[in-house]
Write a structure and sequence with these properties.
Layout (H helix, E strand, L loop, with lengths): L7 E8 L2 H11 L3 E8 L2 E10 L8 E6 L12 E10 L3 H10 L8 E3 L2 E7 L5 E7 L22 E9 L3 H9 L4 E6 L2 E5 L8 E6 L12 E9 L2 H13 L8 E2 L4 E6 L5 E6 L27 H7 L11 H8 L1
Parallel strand pairs: 1-4, 5-8, 9-12, 13-16
Antiparallel strand pairs: 1-13, 2-3, 3-4, 5-9, 6-7, 7-8, 10-11, 11-12, 14-15, 15-16
Length: 327
């Protein structure tokens, strides 16, 4: 593969009640809602983007919250854990914080010399916080006052793909995305993009006896990897097609351009461009405060808004208010 990704762009999951989703990711995890929009393929539901102050690639967790959606099943052919990076010394704080909110957390475990705290969101989505070591994660967190900045999430750390057999998935990661094998611990294989580190890692968990996963509420819909620009993405698509991979056309997602394909075990992957970003249709200080629609859906705004429940956002989602609350 002549084109390689620099790391994760975003992870998209399926949720249930959108207000409950907002409450957890903004108030409990301290992320910023950087965009309220809709699922462009099903505009009767939100597409909510959470991340750092500007929604930079590698910080993003996004959701399609469909109220009443049946609960999915974890298993092979899925991304089964989404991990965020936090300072190495913050795992104890997060454990106390989440338990104080009534969130059930697993015992802290050590993996690749890092402490890992695993828990679930209100829809059962498996999440983890990884206390990164070895010089720290220098990405700036969203400082909103709800989570002390010294403990705040820095961005995505890694995703875990569950598979029954490793070889075909490993080949896709190496020859389709340009990742490199980094380590192996029993049935867990780690691959890294670029120089590796938080935001550039994927673990492949080989579980031959696990059931096939079912994508629904509480599961990951797809995992997106970074491309710097549209020209690189187009060349990348051509290379994948030459390898015999079934790839979608390039789709306009307003804040980035996307192509989609599946790795052999079944997980849906995306290559998303870093550009143009979330400030294309609203200023940085106002990100996530109002519903934004792409031009082709704007004529349907009244009908779309009538279908969507109103969201109550904490004042801290506004940087100007958050700054006043900290002082």
């Amino acid at each position: 593969m002549s084109i390689t990704t620099s790391g994760l762009h975003h992870v998209t999951a399926i949720g249930g009640d959108p207000q409950r989703n907002v409450d957890f990711y903004l108030r409990a995890l301290g992320l910023r809602l950087v965009k309220q929009t809709v699922n462009f393929d099903d505009p009767g539901t939100y597409h909510l983007y959470y991340g750092d102050e500007a929604g930079r690639p590698g910080s993003l967790m996004t959701f399609f919250p469909w109220p009443g959606t049946p609960t999915g099943r974890l298993g092979n052919g899925q991304a089964t854990t989404t991990s965020f990076s936090v300072p190495e010394s913050s795992i104890g704080w997060w454990q106390r914080h989440l338990e104080g909110l009534g969130v059930s957390v697993d015992p802290v475990e050590s993996r690749d010399e890092e402490d890992v705290l695993t828990f679930r969101d209100p829809d059962g989505l498996v999440l983890a916080l990884v206390g990164h070591h070895g010089g720290g994660d220098d990405r700036a967190p969203w400082d909103n006052g709800l989570v002390p900045v010294e403990h705040a999430i820095r961005g995505l750390h890694s995703v875990t793909l569950s598979v029954a057999q490793e070889d075909a998935t490993a080949d896709m990661l190496v020859n389709g995305l340009g990742l490199r094998p980094q380590s192996r611990d029993g049935n867990r294989l780690r691959y890294a993009a670029g120089e590796g580190g938080p935001g550039a890692l994927v673990d492949v968990l080989v579980t031959p006896d696990a059931p096939r996963g079912l994508v629904a509420a509480g599961t990951v819909h797809h995992v997106a990897w970074r491309a710097p620009d549209q020209a690189t993405q187009a060349a990348w698509r051509d290379e994948l097609l030459d390898q015999g991979v079934r790839v979608t056309s390039i789709l306009d997602r307003q804040y980035f351009r996307s192509i989609y394909f599946r790795e052999p075990a079944g997980t849906l992957l995306e290559v998303a461009t870093d550009e143009p970003g979330f400030a294309i249709d609203e200023p940085l200080l106002e990100l996530g405060r109002a519903l934004k629609l792409p031009p082709w859906l704007e004529p349907q705004r009244d009908d779309i808004q009538a279908l969507l429940p109103a969201l109550d956002l904490p004042d801290e989602n506004d940087p100007a208010v958050a700054d006043r609350l900290r002082t």
